[in-house]
Amino acid sequence: TRFAPPDDVARVSAVLILVGPDERGGEDIILTERTAHLRSHAGQVSFPGGGVEPQDVTFTDTALREANEEIGLVPEGIHVMGELQPVALPVTNYEVCPVLAWWNVPSDISVLDPVEVARVARISVRDLVDPANRHTVTHPRGFKGPGFEVDGFYIWGFTAFVLDAVLTTGGVARSWNRDDERQVPDRFLS
Fold this sequence. Notes:
The protein is of the alpha+beta class. It is built from 3 helices and 12 strands, in the order E-E-E-E-H-E-E-E-E-H-E-E-E-H-E. The protein has helices spanning 59-71, 125-128, 157-169; strands at 11-21, 27-34, 45-46, 49-51, 78-83, 87-89, 94-103, 117-124, 134-138, 144-150, 153-155, 181-183.
């Protein structure tokens, strides 16, 4: 609740944290990389998702609709486990609701909206919890938080916080060197 959104957020959105079976007998999580030309969060790794539209009754509706539009995710193969507490992102004046789901029937996914999404990948939970792929991200403005480097994805900020929380709460997180501090890459500083 300490990240609960204020009453005056300008934009409301939802993201889909989709966990499913991977090819190695474990689980993976779907992540996307935003295109480099976007005005906000350009090139950053995120969960599929976006802004609430008038036809969306719930945050789940938003997350599933956006995942379908961005990467072609077939909603019928998804079991939604629940909507997590919305999180305030003061930097962008967004309220974001993470929606946690299990992928019962995996379907083909790919970049369907190249204006927003540069690439999409299924990232192994095994690789996400590997201490060699974890570090503490620092930002010149004083931000510190969890970070991941997996399969060419540099994951930090909101996405890394949510991933860290889900992996920890799910009981699969492993101890990692939190003293390994690395500044966020320059490409994210503009």
